[in-house]
Amino acid sequence: MGTLILREVRANDLDACAAMIRESFMTVAKEFGLTPENCATNGAFLPLERLLNDFKNGNIMFGSFADGDRPVGFMQLRDKGEGVFSLEKLCVLPGYRHDGIGAVLLEKARTEAIRLGGHKIEIGIIEENTRLKDWYLLNGF
Q1: d(CA 86, CA 77)
Q2: Could you say which of 25, 46, 115, 126 has the lowest number of CB atoms within 10 Å?
Q3: In 10 A of CB 101, how many CB atoms?
Q4: 3-state per-residue secondary structure call for 62-127
């Protein structure tokens, strides 16, 4: 697998991160029949402009990078105010799944939310995605 580095996402990473997010979410989109027409906000259809806007708006973004600059995992936290954060776009490329990268990104989201005075993290998932739901439950959600 090589060396993985967890670090904050930089502006020059956004194009590669957007492509990685789309690839990561596409497996779920195919499994559940999601299309740009019936679920335009799903990460599988993420336009670079949306990620750029989130970055400019101060959303917290961390990635797991292979070989220094190739993103293989990603997470984003959006401050909703009053100590509540929304965890968005948590994903790992299919070839890197089941090696603990998602759990590391989830823990980073927790520590960042706490560091910023947060007391609650919200997530949104497809209810029928029991595999993902079970993973979040196993990790304290």
Answers
A1: 6
A2: 115
A3: 22
A4: EEEEECCCEEEEEEEEEEEECCEEEEEEEEECHHHCCCCHHHHHHHHHHHHHHHCCCCEEECCCCC
Residues in the chain: 141
- Give the rounded distance of the alpha carbon of 95 from its chain centre: 16
All residues at 6 or more sequence positions from 113 whose CB lies less than 8 Å from its CB, including other chains: 77, 85, 121
Query: What percent of the chain stands above pLDDT 70?
Result: 99
Residue with tokens 């304290």: 140
- Are residues 13 and 82 in contact, defined by beta-carbon separation less than 8 angstroms? no
Cβ within 8 Å of residue 103, ≥6 positions away:
139
